């Protein structure tokens, strides 16, 4: 975790089922054990932080262990909260006669594809911007790869989109000013709301683009498809100037696993491990063994967690 030690915000990504949630939880436990105030956040709609810690985790901070808190972002709840916020924002901006119609339109928009994602994203931004001062470490357990990449590149896309909107409104406002012919710029609350959102996106982009503040960890298992997917994800994130510094190679067969069957698997696994070392020279690699059982309780999680810490120190 050497590289990760300097980071405040850590995103854990990877293909479905490779061990993202387990790794996020284990990483968070390791940080908390070292005395860092740590927050672990699940952004995957199919949550399992609660299952891992055997505690009900909801959309507000829940204490899990000493120095460790958890949040499961609930897309439905966030969507509702987000829509209420949008309505509040518009209150006073539109004529009272139109309020009902505008609310109807917003309700319809909130049922459209992408609305939950926008709400989830809004919460994610708020957590990064607002909780940073309360925590030393914020670990994000993300949904499988494609979703995460979209989420992480949204601030960039949204900034471009908002810039376009701002420009259009500015033109309209300038026209008004000319029309009124008094030279005073017109008050435009919508312009101000857009401007505020733009500033929020810019602030969050600054955090996730700063390698001293934010780290990206990918979890993979030594098999063909996870290797390919990791390669693509790293390339894609790089295009957006986001650098993946750490790879957790999970479920590596331990040496003591015996039998002919496992010997065969191990042989194949060696080839993949070599391929991983070959392909991912820019990343720090941490190897975690396959355990006899699922990582389903605190004791097993602690074992996983110390493996994670030691794997790093061994390098
Ligand atoms: N090293 C390991 N040894 C044994 N079992 C493991 C190991 N790592 C993870 N597991 C188990 O594998 C399963 C999948 O792990 P996990 O839920 O962390 O994956 P995920 O990447 O978060 O999955 P999803 O994409 O569904 O969110 C879990 O049952 C977990 O306990
Ligand atoms: Mg998961």
Biggest sheet, strands in spatial order?
3-4-2-5-1-6-7-8
Give the topology string: H per helix, E per strand.
Answer: HEHEHEEHHHEHHEHEHEH
What Rg do the Cα atoms give? 23 Å
CATH class: Alpha Beta
Enter the CATH topology name: Rossmann fold
* Fourth-level CATH superfamily: P-loop containing nucleotide triphosphate hydrolases
Helix content: 55-70%
In the CATH classification, which architecture applies?
3-Layer(aba) Sandwich
Topology:
Elements: H1 2-5, E1 9-14, H2 20-33, E2 38-42, H3 49-53, E3 62-65, E4 68-72, H4 75-90, H5 96-110, H6 115-131, E5 137-141, H7 145-180, H8 189-209, E6 214-220, H9 224-239, E7 244-252, H10 260-279, E8 284-289, H11 298-313
Parallel strand pairs: 1-5, 1-6, 2-4, 2-5, 6-7, 7-8
Antiparallel strand pairs: 3-4
Helix pairs in contact: 2-11, 4-5, 4-6, 7-8, 7-9
Protein name: TRC40/GET3/ArsA family transport-energizing ATPase
Pfam family, one: ArsA_ATPase
Domain ArsA/GET3 Anion-transporting ATPase-like: 8-309
Q: In words, what does this structure look like?
A:
By secondary structure, this protein is of the alpha/beta class. The protein has helices at residues 2-5, 20-33, 49-53, 75-90, 96-110, 115-131, 145-180, 189-209, 224-239, 260-279, 298-313; strands at 9-14, 38-42, 62-65, 68-72, 137-141, 214-220, 244-252, 284-289. Strand 3 and strand 4 (68-72) form a beta hairpin. Strands 3-4-2-5-1-6-7-8 form an eight-stranded mixed sheet. It has a single domain, classed as P-loop containing nucleotide triphosphate hydrolases (Rossmann fold, 3-Layer(aba) Sandwich), CATH 3.40.50.300. The protein contains eleven helices and eight strands. Helix 4 packs across helix 6 (115-131), helix 7 (145-180) packs antiparallel against helix 8 (189-209) and helix 7 runs parallel beside helix 9 (224-239). The structure holds adenosine-5'-triphosphate and magnesium ion (MG). Adenosine-5'-triphosphate is lined by residues 14, 16-22, 44, 48, 144, 250-251, 288, 290-291, 294-296. It comes from Halobacillus litoralis.
